[in-house]
Every structure is written in structure tokens, then in C-alpha cells.
């Protein structure tokens, strides 16, 4: 994809994975997670596998439908890998078994391999299978400059789209109409599509953290939670803004101030060295101190990248330690029954001395009601 963005170091990723395998004395790894396959090879097809072993060329395994695409994408990213192409599943398994011949065992991604797949691999590959978790995901958690540029572009597109579509609230659209308009504008501005199913939740629906847009008309007196993102070259942005539309219940006014204060504290605390549980506690303790703790019912944040939710995690119990190059969200929220809810979310890049926000949309959406130019963000 010609994005005009700096290239990512795809070619070096299998080598870094080899070091991780050698450190664990794991002879080989079978990668089946689709995002992990793309990360290691640049291949964007829907079905593929990657075999990696210390000291040898990795292999990308595809069926015949993807031969040309795989050749092109490996070349485009300068990935030095064998390409194994077969037509049927038994032929694919046979090719993988031949590549693994001589290995004492092979790791597999326990989080994505089903029991049925494990049984097929165990019967076909001719090696012992060792469950692994997070080997590729740990590499993915630290973004290179090319990845950060894609996340930044995606965030800019989302911000620009919201700035342009927000004026349509004056026309009283339904939640679904507003969500569709936002999705279309992100595509018009250069996104391949939304990062996930856009959340537009108004009035009592805003009390549901993951409400689906429906036929309810957005009205004066509502809190309006908008949670959405844009996808650019496989990378996802994620942001949430809450608008208080006209006179609203006093609880919502106070809730907005409470969440805004907690979210700002979380962004200020996000830096290399803090762990996910401690970052979550910054937001949670702030909201609890303001008397709203019982209404904060989810975690503070998560990593974003090729997946919309990935490591590291900023939630209770998380031992993920943030390092420079992580990109995480900070998104506290409170939700109360029929009144509605408030959530504010930014994505930030962790640096050695703090963080740099990727989400630049103002927290107070009233200043966007006269939208800026519709030019495509650079």
C-alpha cells in the first residue's frame, strides 16, 4: 500500500523473534495468528502460517490462491523467507512437516490455535508441540517509526472526520445515521475503514460502555458517547469523546469533570517504567476520590496497533511495564443507569520521559460545532 508514510522494519522482525526463541531454547515456532503473520512478513491475506527457527530462513506458508500476493508482499518488505505454496490442507501440512524435519519440537500460539487445529497439527507435523503465549505480541508492543506514523495518520483522520461530522448533530440524526456519516468521512479522508464498529450512544444508551448505534435520535439533554477509530495500512486508531448536549442532568455535568480530571492524570502518568496496574490505579483512584468509583466498571486502557486491543494492558492486575515505543489508550469512564455515561479516551505514544498524545481532538466538543476545512490530513 503506497501511503506516503515511512517504511516499517518488517524485514528485521523474524530475526528478533529468533532471539526470543533461542532464549527460551525453543527449536521452532508455528505462527498462526493473522496479525502476527502480517507483522512478521507483511503478508495481508486472510489465511497463512509462518514457521520461524533460530539460525535459518523463516517460511511463509500459503495456499495457491495467494502465491502472487505473497511473492509481491514479501518483496515489497524485503523479507528474506521461503515461500511454501500448496493446494490442499494435507499438502500444506506436509510442506510444514518437511520444513520442520529435524526439529525436536515446535511451539504454537496457544491463544489462537483451537483444540481441533492442535489435533491436526499433532497428527501431521511429526514433532512435539509446545504451547506458547505472547512471543510475537511482545515484539509488536514496541512500535517502530513507521508503525507510529501509521497510527498517527489514523488518529489524524479520525479527528478530522469528527470535526466535520459533528455539525450534523444540529439536524437530530439517529445514532446509526451519525455513525455511518463518521465512517464514510474517515474513508473519504484516506482510511481503509473504521477500526471497529463505531459506537455512538446517546441518552440512556450512553450508560452502556459498548452500546451499538440504533434508531434513537440524538436529542437535547443527552450525554453522547462517541468511540471510534480509523484504520490506515492495517493500523488502528482509537478515541472516545463525550458531548453534553444542552441542559443535562447535574450528575452528568459532574461526571464529565470527574472523568476529564482522571483522564488527564492518567495521561500525565503514562511513561516508561509504570506498569499497567499502576496506570489503571491513577485513573481509578482519582475517580474514586471524587465519589464516582462505583460507576467506573472497566479498565483504563490497552495497546493499539495491528489489533484494536493488544498488549500492553492498563487494567487491574496487569504486570505489563510500559516502555518507550508502546502506544496505549487512556480511557476512564463512568456510567449510570438511565442517566447515561461519560468516557474520554486518548491514544498516547510512550517516550523515555512521558508520553506524546496522538489524539488531538479537544475534550470539549462544543468548539467543533463550526467544522474546519475538509482537506485530507497529511
Q: What distance separates the N and C termini?
A: 16 Å
> Biggest sheet, strands in spatial order?
4-3-2-1-5-6
Mean pLDDT over the residues: 95
Regions with little confidence, pLDDT below 50 for 5+ residues = 370-378
Q: How large is the radius of gyration?
A: 23 Å
* Gross geometry: elongated
The count of strands amounts to 19
Determine the strand fraction and express it as a percent band.
15-25%
Instruction: State the secondary-structure class.
Output: alpha+beta
Q: Helical segment tally?
A: 10
* Secondary structure: helix percent: 25-40%
Order of helices and strands: HEHEEHEHEHEHHHEEEEEEHHEEEEEEE
Tell me about the largest β-sheet: 6 strands, mixed
Topology:
Elements: H1 13-23, E1 29-31, H2 34-41, E2 49-52, E3 59-63, H3 67-76, E4 82-86, H4 89-100, E5 105-109, H5 115-124, E6 128-132, H6 135-140, H7 145-165, H8 175-188, E7 193-194, E8 199-202, E9 223-228, E10 230-232, E11 235-236, E12 239-244, H9 250-269, H10 276-289, E13 301-303, E14 310-314, E15 327-330, E16 333-336, E17 340-343, E18 346-351, E19 354-357
Parallel strand pairs: 1-5, 3-4, 5-6
Antiparallel strand pairs: 1-2, 2-3, 7-10, 8-9, 9-12, 10-11, 13-14, 15-18, 16-17, 18-19
Helix pairs in contact: 7-8, 9-10
Key attributes of the depicted protein:
378 residues, alpha+beta, six-stranded mixed beta sheet, three-stranded antiparallel beta sheet, 19 strands, 21% strand
Amino acid at each position: 500500500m503506497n501511503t506516503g508514510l515511512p517504511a516499517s522494519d518488517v524485514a528485521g522482525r523474524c530475526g528478533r523473534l529468533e532471539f526470543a526463541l533461542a532464549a527460551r531454547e525453543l527449536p521452532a515456532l508455528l505462527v498462526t495468528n493473522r496479525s502476527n503473520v502480517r507483522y512478521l512478513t507483511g503478508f495481508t491475506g486472510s489465511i497463512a502460517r509462518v514457521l520461524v527457527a533460530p539460525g535459518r530462513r523463516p517460511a511463509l506458508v500459503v495456499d495457491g490462491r495467494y502465491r502472487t500476493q505473497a511473492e509481491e508482499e514479501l518483496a515489497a518488505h524485503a523479507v528474506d523467507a521461503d515461500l511454501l505454496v500448496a493446494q490442499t490442507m494435507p499438502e500444506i501440512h506436509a510442506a510444514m512437516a518437511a520444513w520442520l524435519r529435524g526439529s525436536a519440537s515446535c511451539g504454537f500460539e496457544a491463544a489462537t490455535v483451537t483444540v481441533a487445529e492442535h489435533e491436526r497439527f499433532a497428527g501431521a507435523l511429526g514433532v512435539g508441540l509446545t504451547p506458547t503465549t505472547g512471543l510475537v505480541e511482545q515484539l509488536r508492543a514496541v512500535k517502530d517509526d513507521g508503525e507510529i506514523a501509521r497510527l498517527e495518520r489514523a488518529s489524524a483522520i479520525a479527528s478530522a472526520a469528527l470535526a466535520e461530522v459533528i455539525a450534523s448533530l444540529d439536524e437530530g440524526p439517529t445514532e446509526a445515521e451519525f455513525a455511518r456519516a463518521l465512517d464514510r468521512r474517515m474513508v473519504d479522508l484516506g482510511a481503509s475503514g473504521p477500526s471497529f464498529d463505531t459506537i455512538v450512544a446517546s441518552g440512556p444508551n450512553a450508560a452502556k460502555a459498548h452500546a451499538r448505534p440504533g434508531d434513537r435520535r440524538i436529542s437535547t439533554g443527552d450525554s453522547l458517547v462517541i468511540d471510534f477509530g480509523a484504520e490506515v495500512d492495517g493500523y488502528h486508531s482509537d478515541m472516545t469523546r463525550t458531548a453534553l448536549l444542552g441542559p443535562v442532568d447535574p450528575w452528568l455535568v459532574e461526571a464529565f469533570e470527574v472523568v476529564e480530571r482522571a483522564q488527564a492524570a492518567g495521561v500525565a502518568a503514562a511513561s516508561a517504567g509504570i506498569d499497567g496496574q499502576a496506570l489503571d490505579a491513577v485513573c481509578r483512584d482519582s475517580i474514586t476520590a471524587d465519589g464516582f468509583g462505583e460507576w467506573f466498571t472497566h479498565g483504563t486502557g490497552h495497546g493499539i496497533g495491528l489489533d484494536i486491543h493488544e498488549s500492553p494492558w492498563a487494567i487491574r492486575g496487569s504486570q505489563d511495564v510500559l516502555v518507550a515505543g508502546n502506544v496505549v489508550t487512556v480511557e476512564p469512564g463512568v456510567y449510570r443507569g438511565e442517566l447515561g455515561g461519560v468516557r474520554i479516551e486518548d491514544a498516547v505514544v510512550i517516550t523515555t520521559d512521558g508520553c506524546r498524545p496522538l489524539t488531538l481532538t479537544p475534550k470539549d466538543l462544543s468548539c467543533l460545532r463550526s467544522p474546519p476545512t475538509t482537506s485530507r490530513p497529511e
